[in-house]
């Protein structure tokens, strides 16, 4: 059975059956280079920041996934979100001479952009194998091995920064957003997406119930995610204005829990929290699969997995941007708006 992907938005539901993709040609103009000058080692963290994720392990997971014989088999989710981000970039009525993709993976986003919109594209990731196996794109690109929290670029460099499904593995998300704001030019825009708090809640609940019943307690097996209520605040604190934050849900149906976990590993999305449990007993895993099927099974026998996606857009301040009116400058009070509307309707009827 091939995973089925369903995108759930307010009032609209799309259904799409994912078919195996043909192998893609590597982009010959992509050369992986490491910018070492002034860049802290991969996995470094800022002082005073909670060290939730093992960044070294995450790098190994992504490198392993990028080296698999058929990495395109697991690209369906990243390509879907990449296309959604590209649509948001096209909605902005301008072109971007210089753009940056933070946490690009194998370049899932770049393939949906064109050279008329983006002149030159810098792609950064912590996994060198992902950069070496980048997907083909018509845009001239430069690959840079770099950590999301320590971007090796000067201030006011890029017209556009994008990021697709990478920032949820960052230990210091405020710093990462500040870094993105720093490298943007004034009036530059950041368009990104990351996994949200309800992602894989079916898998989380099933594992917790099975582990509690079989082992007398449970440990975290799904990494923690940022709440959408915090995301706008973090973007504002980083210096962005004219913010847009919205939520999508993507549901993918799998034959069973083990197929879901295989795909997560193939995506490089296995848990890398420091407090993760290294090993689950076989009977606990079988019990979790049974719980998953009993609680969430679809009519066709498949089981759903929900991915919550936070989409965000933020702009770096520039004098040309529209500003809110000064406090107290209004000429009409809210109490008079109803009377004003009636007056306008009366004039139209005359």
Describe this structure in words.
The protein has 350 residues and is α/β, with parallel strands linked by helices. It has a domain at 55-197 and 225-269 and 306-318: Rossmann fold (3-Layer(aba) Sandwich). The chain has 9 helices and 10 strands. It has helices spanning 55-66, 76-90, 128-132, 173-183, 201-215, 228-237, 257-267, 282-296, 337-349; strands at 4-9, 12-17, 32-34, 96-102, 118-125, 141-145, 158-164, 184-195, 241-254, 303-315. Strand 5 (118-125), helix 3 and strand 6 (141-145) form a beta-alpha-beta unit. Residues 7-43 have low confidence and may be disordered.
Q: Can you summarize this structure?
A:
With 350 residues, the protein is of the alpha/beta class. The chain has helices at residues 55-66, 76-90, 128-132, 173-183, 201-215, 228-237, 257-267, 282-296, 337-349; strands at residues 4-9, 12-17, 32-34, 96-102, 118-125, 141-145, 158-164, 184-195, 241-254, 303-315. 31% of the residues lie in helices and 23% in strands.
């Amino acid at each position: 059975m091939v995973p089925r992907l369903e995108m759930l938005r307010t009032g609209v539901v799309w259904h799409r059956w994912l078919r195996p993709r043909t192998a893609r040609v590597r982009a010959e103009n992509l050369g992986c280079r490491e910018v070492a000058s002034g860049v802290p080692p991969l996995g470094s963290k800022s002082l005073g920041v909670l060290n939730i994720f093992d960044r070294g392990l995450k790098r190994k997971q992504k490198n392993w996934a990028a080296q698999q014989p058929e990495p395109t088999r697991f690209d369906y989710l990243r390509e879907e979100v990449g296309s959604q981000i590209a649509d948001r970039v096209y909605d902005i009525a301008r072109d971007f001479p210089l753009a940056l993709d933070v946490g690009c993976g194998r370049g899932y986003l770049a393939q949906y952009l064109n050279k008329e919109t983006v002149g030159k594209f810098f792609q950064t990731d912590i996994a060198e194998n992902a950069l070496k196996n980048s997907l083909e794109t018509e845009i001239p690109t430069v690959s840079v091995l770099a950590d999301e929290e320590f971007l090796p670029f000067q201030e006011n460099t890029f017209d556009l920064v994008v990021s697709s499904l990478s920032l949820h593995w960052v230990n210091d998300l405020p710093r990462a957003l500040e870094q993105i704001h720093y490298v943007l030019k004034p009036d530059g825009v950041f368009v990104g997406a990351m996994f949200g708090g309800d992602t894989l809640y079916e898998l989380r609940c099933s594992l917790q119930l099975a582990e509690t019943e079989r082992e007398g307690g449970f440990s975290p097996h799904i990494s923690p995610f940022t709440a959408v209520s915090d995301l706008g605040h973090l973007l504002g604190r980083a210096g962005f204005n004219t913010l847009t934050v919205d939520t999508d849900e993507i549901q993918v149906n799998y034959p069973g829990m083990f197929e879901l976990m295989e795909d997560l590993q193939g995506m490089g999305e296995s848990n890398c929290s420091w407090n993760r449990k290294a090993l689950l007993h076989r009977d606990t895993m079988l019990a979790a699969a049974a719980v998953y099927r009993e609680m969430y099974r679809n009519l066709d026998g498949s089981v759903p997995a929900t991915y919550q996606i936070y989409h965000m857009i933020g702009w770096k301040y520039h004098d040309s941007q529209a500003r809110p009116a000064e406090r107290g400058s209004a000429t009409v009070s809210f109490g008079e708006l109803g009377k004003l509307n009636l007056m306008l309707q009366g004039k139209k009827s005359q």
